[in-house]
Design goal:
Layout (H helix, E strand, L loop, with lengths): L14 H10 L7 H112 L2 H18 L6 H27 L3 H13 L3 H43 L13 H26 L4 H29 L3 H6 L3 H6 L10 H24 L5 H12 L3 H5 L1 H14 L14 H34 L4 H29 L16 H6 L7 H42 L35 H6 L3 H13 L9 H30 L28 H28 L2 H28 L6 H20 L6 H11 L2 H11 L6 H10 L6
Family: Belongs to the COG7 family.
Protein name: Conserved oligomeric Golgi complex subunit 7
Main location: Golgi
Length: about 850
């Protein structure tokens, strides 16, 4: 049996637990006494072994203590000796440092003097060489050896730089400038010939001469000048083809006229949009060929020469390009085609007022822009080896002709959207035709509701056009246009809503049927006379349908705003600006991969981002757009702030109109209720015992009750429509219940207001009024509506006999009765409470 001693060292060692555990480990057939005896013996033997081992180790430790003490003393002496040695070494180093510093200072002065002497020697040599070069340079030029002449002029330039601004060499400096210009002019014809005839070796030699005298700009200018002519011919080919087409059409017209045939059907015109792709294809082919040739002729400069050629080309034809684009946009619409004008002419206000910007104008502009975008992507591929800055400058030059249009994009979209709103059928209702108001109401509401999705489509199309054309760089201006046009649309809806109030009879019209303005007395006495109960409910149904207009407008505008905000977030991600303003052009390499036209970029190079290409050159514009993108990250941000406020106001006006229509009949039946003669009637003498009042409610409250009980049936169709559209029956039920409660509470409030206007009431009138109030309370109860405490107090006090009313009021103390109302009833019935 092994004894585990590890548990004895634990702090919470429990002897009883350990013994119990040891006993449980015994064999089942071994007696407990024997097992315990064996365990005791083993423990005793182990303890003796531990004691012996401890004694032995203690003796050995005592023997090692004197030896360790001697070692410690020796180490301390060695440390003191080492400290003394280090101190003496430090003193020596400080002395050496002082003398070395003096030596180094002296050597530095000597080295400075030596370098100055060498510089003076070299300057003297350069001065001597400059004089010699100046005297022999004419001989070099006379020899016709242009490389040698370039080398001589380069040496002269070096010598002049070395001697600095010395008055004695001023004439030589002027002579050098003249000679460099002379050599430049001598190189020009040879370089031009080499470029025209593709002589790579000669072109490379001439290039070396110009570079040697620091005239790389001359190389760029000569190269651009030579190749700009054939490219301009490609551009002018459009006018030539137009003239030939025009002459062919005139000839065709003459032939058709001589044959008495309608010549209009055979007239042909050359479209700029159809011609532009062929121009881009030919230009691209020309640039690709130049790129390949320049790799051989100018291996050091081809990455800048060919892009420079394209940049200068676009600058040269930019004005003509803008004019052609403008005319091309006008040809898609008959009004502007007839005038040979385009969108820029419309914006300038030079055209008749009837000529407006049309969607087709912008679509034609975007089509041309997309053609240029395809060309730009091809250019990016061809120039993929060029420097980042050069490539982006080239792409900006390609899009340069469209900058005029982009700067006025917000104005163009505003014109398009305003025109789109103007063509919508939003005519207001007519209030002059008697008997057809219900039809006009329904028709107007239908037109209003159907116009909302059309307007949203207009707004969405404008947003898409902005992304396609400007890459989103004009979103800030577009949002202003969207907000203003949406405001314009909602204003029209509100004007229609005002006309609907007059048709529904809840508001006075500006002119009545006879064309006379209504007076103040007319305003209060005005009522809508219905020829039938069916026509009466047609007003209610028409008014309820206006709620769908409000709901549709609110939800559609909200969804569009969310979409617009999402677009701003996406644009913020795509436009990766880290510095705005003066540092923008230092971050061109960080433009994202998004060209706004679906193109892809070359791997490892700047991507084609139309928005970023514009913004790097217009820091103020970039700062304004970036501010908008930052604001859009706020959850409280409204993309259309003014329109959002007007939508809320329109929704409130709709709710107010619907409520006024639903409560109108109640208001008419309760009108002048407080002055009914029955309240002051007295009991008539009779030979027989008959009730002094009618056991039935009067017609006014009976009509109101029937109206309220029928109203849920009128709300049901609209509630079902909400349930079907939103797939939410709970919302439909809540809608119907909410409006029923509004009308019920309104009816109760109107009734209470009239009751309070009763100045005096007899017992017979009180009993009749008690029956009327009880009937209305029963109607409210049938509609699951509570009876207002004030109305219940009126009913209780009017139903109580006059001689018991005083005691009832004093004994209640406000527990069940509304005391001000109870006091008022007592006053009506001539009862003094004091």
């Amino acid at each position: 049996m092994m004894v585990d001693l590890s548990s004895f060292s634990e702090e919470k060692f429990d002897p009883k637990k350990w013994i119990n555990g040891a006993v449980q480990q015994r064999h089942s057939q071994d007696p407990v006494e024997k097992h315990l005896v064996d365990l005791e013996m083993k423990l005793q033997m182990v303890s003796e072994e531990i004691a012996a081992s401890l004694e032995e180790q203690s003796s050995a430790a005592l023997l090692r203590v004197p030896r360790a003490s001697r070692d410690v003393l020796r180490l301390r002496d060695d440390a003191l000796s080492l400290r003394s040695s280090v101190a003496s070494i430090l003193i020596s180093l400080k002395k050496a440092e002082g003398s070395s510093a003096e030596s180094i200072t002296a050597l530095a002065k000597i080295d400075t003097v030596k370098r100055r002497m060498e510089a003076a020697y070299e300057t003297l040599q350069d001065a001597a060489g400059l004089t010699q070069l100046s005297s022999t340079v004419e001989d070099v030029f006379s020899s016709g050896d242009l490389p040698r002449a370039a080398e001589t002029l380069a040496n002269m330039r070096h010598c002049l730089t070395a001697v600095g601004e010395v008055a004695e060499f001023a004439n030589i400096r002027k002579q050098l400038e003249v000679l460099e210009e002379r050599l430049d002019s001598m190189v020009q014809p040879r370089l031009t010939d080499a470029l025209n005839n593709k002589k790579a070796n000669v072109a490379q030699e001439m290039r070396g001469i110009l570079i040697r005298i620091g005239r790389f700009k001359s190389l760029e200018n000569y190269y651009t000048k030579v190749h700009l002519r054939p490219i301009k011919k490609l551009w002018e080919d459009f006018e030539l083809k137009q003239q030939s087409t025009k002459l062919a059409n005139e000839k065709n017209e003459m032939e058709q006229f001589s044959r008495n045939v309608d010549s209009q059907s055979h007239v042909q015109t050359l479209s700029f949009a159809r011609w532009l792709p062929s121009f881009y294809d030919e230009l691209l082919l020309y640039l690709e060929q130049e790129w390949k040739w320049c790799i051989l002729a100018f291996p050091e400069d081809y990455k800048t020469l060919v892009p420079k050629l394209l940049t200068e080309t676009m600058a040269a034809i930019c004005t003509s390009f803008v004019s052609r684009v403008n005319v091309a946009t006008g040809k898609v619409v008959p009004e502007t085609k007839a005038l040979a004008k385009g969108v820029l002419d419309i914006l300038s206000g030079d055209l008749p007022k009837g000529v407006k910007i049309h969607t087709k104008h912008l679509e034609a502009l975007i089509e041309l822009h997309n053609l240029t975008g395809s060309f730009a992507r091809n250019i990016q591929h061809v120039f993929s080896d060029s420097n980042q800055h050069v490539l982006l400058d080239t792409l900006k030059a390609v899009y340069l002709p469209y900058e005029t249009f982009k700067q006025r994009y917000g104005q163009m979209e505003h014109g398009v959207l305003s025109g789109g709103i103007a063509v919508l059928d939003l005519r207001g209702v007519s209030t002059r035709i008697i008997g057809v108001q219900g039809v006009e109401l329904s028709e107007t509401v239908r037109r209003m509701e159907e116009s909302i999705p059309l307007v949203i489509l207009l707004l969405e199309a404008a947003m898409e056009r902005c992304i396609n054309f400007t890459g989103g760089s004009e979103l800030d201006e577009l949002i202003l246009a969207l907000d203003d046009v949406t405001l314009q649309y909602i204003t029209i809806l509100q004007e229609n809503l005002k006309a609907l109030r007059a048709v529904c009879g809840v508001d006075v019209t500006v002119d009545n049927v006879l064309g006379k303005k209504e007076t103040g007395s007319d305003r209060h006495a005005r009522k809508v006379d219905f020829s039938s109960n069916e026509e009466e409910w047609s007003y209610v149904q028409g008014a309820l349908q206006i709620l769908t207009v409000s709901d549709c407008l609110t939800s559609r505008i909200s969804v569009f705003e969310a979409s617009l905000k999402s677009t701003l977030t996406r644009l913020s991600t795509n436009l990766s600006f880290s510095v705005i303003g003066s540092n923008l052009d230092q971050n061109q390499s960080r433009l994202d991969d998004n060209d706004g036209t679906g193109g892809s970029s070359t791997a490892g190079k700047a991507s084609l981002d139309v928005a970023a290409l514009r913004l790097v050159d217009v820091p103020e514009k970039a700062r304004k757009l970036f501010s908008l993108l930052e604001q859009s990250k706020d959850p409280r941000f409204h993309a259309l702030p003014l329109a959002s406020q007007r939508v809320a106001a329109f929704s409130e006006a709709v709710n107010e109109l619907v409520y006024d229509v639903l409560i109108l009949k109640v208001r008419q039946h309760f009108n002048d209720l407080s002055n009914l003669p029955i309240w002051s009637s007295v009991e008539e003498a009779s030979a027989y015992p008959v009730p002094s009042f009618s056991a039935y409610p009067q017609s006014y409250v009976n009509n109101v009750g029937e109206y309220l009980l029928t109203l849920p049936q009128q709300l049901e169709p609209l509630a079902e429509g909400i349930s079907n559209s939103d797939a939410n029956a709970e919302d439909a039920q809540f809608f119907a219940t909410e409006w029923m409660f509004k009308v019920g509470e309104g009816a109760s409030a109107l009734y209470i207001e009239q009751l309070r206007g009763i100045l005096k009431i007899t017992d017979r009138g009180a009993q009749q009024l008690s029956v009327d109030i009880e009937y209305l309370s029963n109607v409210l109860s049938a509609l699951s509506m509570p009876t207002p405490p004030v109305l219940a107090t009126f009913q209780t006090c009017f139903s109580t006999p006059r001689d018991q009313l005083k005691d009832l009021v004093k004994s209640d103390s406000g527990n069940q009765l509304d005391l001000p109302t109870a006091n008022l009833v007592c006053k009506m019935r001539g009862i003094r409470l004091d």
